[in-house]
Amino acid sequence: MEHFQSSKRSAFKKRNVCHRLFPLSIYFSVVLFAILRASAPWACSRLCPTVCTCSAERNCVVLCDRAGLQQVLSEFPCEASLISLEKNNIKFLSEKAFGALPALRSLSLNHNNISFITPGAFKGLPHLSELQLAHNEFIKYLHTRTFTNLKRLKKLDLSNCNLFNIPDRIFIAVPALQELAMWQNNFRRIPAAVRATETLRLLYLERNRIEAVAYNSLQGLRRLKYLNLQNNKIAVIHEKGFKDCVELEYLYLNDNLLRNLPEFAFQELRLLKMLNLGGNALVNVSSTWFSQLVELEVLYLDRNAISYIEEGTFENLTSLISLHLNSNNLTSLPFSVFQPVYFLGRLYVFRNPWGCDCKMEWLKEWMENYKLVRDIPCASPPSVAGMDLSQVFFPKSPEGTCVDPVEQNETVYTPIPTERARSTADNRFSNLISKLLFPKMYEDAENTTEIFRNVSVPGGANRETSTAVPMNSNLDPPIQVVFIPIIMFCYNI
Question: Over the chain (493 residues), what is each successive 10-residue block's mean pLDDT?
Fold first, then answer.
């Protein structure tokens, strides 16, 4: 019993000693960490590779750009938070190519000649959040385990490589990926690998060879906010192609081969702020395409072949600020297309063959009142061709309705051919009588060979016609007196 109590007292004493020593151990750990942090800039500079430049700032930055490197260096400062190896001649990445760099956050290998990346090449980089491998034109293949252990990677750039496809499960090892850039590769379809990236927010796939957006191409991307598919060969979009992209805000589909769109292709994109459909081959614009896009602020429909826009196409776009309709085949823009129109901030409609008739009167008034649109050159009718819409005058009929410019310049009374001929003869006869009776008035015009007069033509335009009238000032007055009755007699006949 005494032995048990003595043992208990001994253990109690030991616990008290540990209790007293524990705060002391924490104190020494904190001091040691502070010393290491204070010496980090010095260590970064001291251990900097000779071909690199290292910062002496709080974060250790190692810059080895344009150093002529043929392979990855064997050692880097352990404190390095950013390493740049851009514009070298590195061709191969071996397994665990960078050793153990627990503080590394950003790694750039852009503009090298990398042709193969060994699986596990980035092991030992547990805190890496940004990896740039762009502009390596010899990368044609990536292994499924290329990015193993990069659990904190948020930004990956594989742009301007020579990838035709990537393994479907390659991003499973990257559960935190938010930004993925793969523009200017050779993809003919949206890689299925992106479906596994549920955390993805920004996806860059422009300048590939993608031909379609299938029903499952973007499946599961519920957090995606930015999608760039411009400069591809997309000719078909499935009606459910964007069904899961419910948080999408920016969508670029410009410079593709689209001739038509499903009626409700964008129905689920109710948070969309910018939609670019420019540079396609669209001919008609359906009123159903944008009916649910109440948050849309900027819409590009420029550089298409649009000749018709359905009524009410833009009526639900109550947040619209900028609308681009320039460089199409539009001849008319009825007010019914835009109702209501008060929301627009900027309207771009230049480079269209506009017909400046009464259907465009509302637009002219809107131009004058809000000063939000300009440069609308008229292609027709001929009476106003070449003028800007702002210069066209639209008078009112007695009933108060608008009168088209072509109607303004038409002569109300149009003589029949015989009457026109008789009128012409009358003019000539009167002209000749005046010259014969008042020769002195024409003496100053002896060197003139033509007298110009205006002839009204049915088209409404005034053409300047010249008639050569020979003048003989040598006629004697008696001859003139005899000659006049003869002419009058012949004319009456």
Answer: 48 39 42 44 80 86 96 93 97 96 97 96 97 97 95 98 96 96 98 93 98 96 98 97 97 98 96 98 96 95 97 90 95 82 77 92 85 83 90 88 70 40 44 43 38 34 36 42 42 43
Radius of gyration of the chain (CA): 41
Contact assessment for residue 187 and residue 211, using Cβ atoms and an 8 Å cutoff:
no
- Chain centre distance of CA 209: 19
Count other Cβ atoms within 10 Å, centred on residue 329. 13
Given phi > 0 = left and psi -120 to 50 = alpha, else beta, which region is 84?
Answer: beta
Q: Please tell me the pTM assigned to this model.
A: 0.74
* Dist. CA 385–CA 365, nearest whole Å: 19
Whether the CB-CB separation of 182 and 204 falls below 8 Å is answered with yes
Contacting residues for 146 by C-beta, under 8 A, at least 6 apart: 117, 119, 121, 122, 170
Rounded to whole angstroms, the Cα distance separating 385 from 363 reads 17
For 8, phi then psi, to 5°, come to -65, -40
Q: What are the chain's domains?
A: 40-205 (3.80.10.10), 436-492 (no CATH)
Residues with Cβ < 8 Å from 185, sequence gap 6 or more? 158, 159, 160, 161, 162, 163, 164, 208
